[in-house]
Amino acid sequence: LRITAENAARVVGGNFNEFVWPDGASAPRRNSGTEKFAFADYHTTRLAPDFTLGDKAREQAGWSIQALETAFHEQQAMTLRGVQIASELQTTGNWDASHILDVDDGTTDVPGNTDSWELSTTQRQDIKRSLNRGTQLIHQHTLGVVKRKDLVLVMNPVTAQRLGESQEVIDFIKQAPDAWKILQGEFQNLNSQWGMPDMIYGVPIVVDDTVVVTSARGATTPTFGYTLDNGKAWLLSRPGGLVANAATGPSFSTIMGFFYEEMSVEVKDDRDNRRLEGRVVDDYDIVPTAPVSGIFFRGCTEA
After folding, report:
1. What angle, 0 to 180 degrees and rounded to 10, lies between the N-to-C axes of helices 167-174 and 157-164?
2. 132 partner at 20 to 30 Å CA-CA among 84, 104, 142, 168?
3. DSSP state, 202?
4. Alpha carbon 274 to chain centroid distance?
5. Is the pLDDT score of 208 beyond 90?
6. What phi, psi does 269 have (nearest 5°)?
7. Per residue in 220-239, pLDDT tens?
8. The pLDDT of residue 185 is above 60
9. How far is CA 244 from CA 78, 115, 166, 253, in A?
């Protein structure tokens, strides 16, 4: 269910005259006091990473080859989810134009910003200014429902490492209460290997380190990457932070998964062909359910 929420706060022109009901007059009949809504279609897609093991391989392997292949394909199924989530986040058509902010070109997207987050300093505070702008837009466009405490900042490890080398982030860490422990390596946070704090300006940082191999099996030089693009970041309403069902109104989770079937592991012992066939079945759709509860930041690092 998708419902536009503007009517709950709509006072056209900032003037309440259209709602006035003088004594003795008929009650106002504006016929415009309801909100627009629609049940949007979504279509799940069934995926089945599969494997085949011959009887001779199973009998002669020096390890539990079936269990290992099953684990590999379960991870592959999870990677496929990550690829689809990243695709939805990186598709500009899924976002309202006002929720795509270019932070590096000095335009009016983030007033006051002069360049990328990677080049920001304590004096410039381009990261802080961008987050303030993003949280303000989300707060306004969700009528104050989604606040800074409901958000997380998501990026890939390459972006995190480069931002961790920016003067603004370095100075932010230096001013943290645990700065000395961090510098001495005594305090290990979740993002320490990427040089980033767990939280910045009140917003938790999530470094999505999902690795994807885009080269075919047997390639001379395998191609490794991350599901999310470099130089981009997303301010998202956190999973489970704010939920609602069709009976009570819209959900403010920025992106959601709708599952028909989750991670069913199936194996069949094919005696006719002396082999074992296995697969992991996932059937779902990834949907950007509330783009107004998120921000797509572009140009966070230098090209």
Report:
1. 70
2. 84
3. T
4. 44
5. yes
6. -85, 105
7. 999 999 999 999 999 999 75
8. no
9. 26, 38, 39, 9
Task: For residue 228, give the amino acid letter.
Answer: L
Residues 54-78 as b or e (16 or more Cβ within 10 Å = b): eeeebeeeeeebbeebbeebeebbe
pLDDT bin (cut points 50, 70, 90) of residue 262 is very high
Rounded to the nearest 5 degrees, what angle is found at the Cα of 293, between the Cα atoms of 78 and 126? 95
Cβ burial 168-181 (10 Å sphere, 16+ → b, else e): bbeebbeebeeeee
Q: Please count the other Cβ atoms lying within 10 Å of the Cβ belonging to residue 279.
A: 18
3-state DSSP helix/strand/coil % of the chain, to nearest 5: 30, 25, 45
Give the residue ranges of DSSP H helices in the chain: 55-60, 65-90, 126-141, 157-164, 167-174, 179-184
The C-alpha R_g of the chain, in whole angstroms, comes to 25
What would the two tokens of residue 176 be? 């943290």
Residues 6+ away with beta carbon under 8 Å from 184: none
User: Which pLDDT score is estimated for 33?
Assistant: 65
Tell me the HSE value of 45 on the side-chain side, using a 13 A CA sphere: 9
Among residues 234, 233, 239, the alpha carbon closest in space to that of 138 is found at: 234
Residues 6+ positions from 264 with CB-CB distance below 8 Å: 280, 281, 282
Strand partners for 2: 38
* pLDDT > 70 fraction of the chain, expressed in percent and rounded: 86
Q: What is the C-alpha separation between 181 and 204, in angstroms, rounded?
A: 20
Residue with tokens 């079937």: 261
| pLDDT tens string 13-44 | 888 888 888 898 988 887 666 777 778 888 99
